[in-house]
Amino acid sequence: MGIQIDYYRVLQVHEDADQEIISAAYKCLSKLYHPDINKTKSAAQRMTDINVAYAVIGDERRRKEYHREWLRQKKGKTESIANLQKNRENKKLETAASYLDAYFRDMVNADWSDAYQRLTGVDQENIPAEDFIKWKNAVSQVYKLGNYQLHYLYRYESCEYGGRVYPEILQFAVTLTEYNRMTEQMNQEQTEKYIALEPGGWKICLGYTDLKPSIMRFICLAETLPKVNKDEICRRAIISIDPLTGLLSRNGFLDEAEKEIRRSRRYGNPLTVAVMTVRPSKELLEAFEDNLTDACVSYVSGKLSAKLRKTDIIGRCEDAAFAILLTETDQLAAQFAMQKLMDEFVEDDDLSCNIFWGCTPIEDNDAETAIAKGMAAAMLQESRKDQILIEEEKTDRDVAKLGKYGLYDILRFNRKWKNHF
Question: How many separate domains does the chain show?
Answer without folding.
Answer: 3
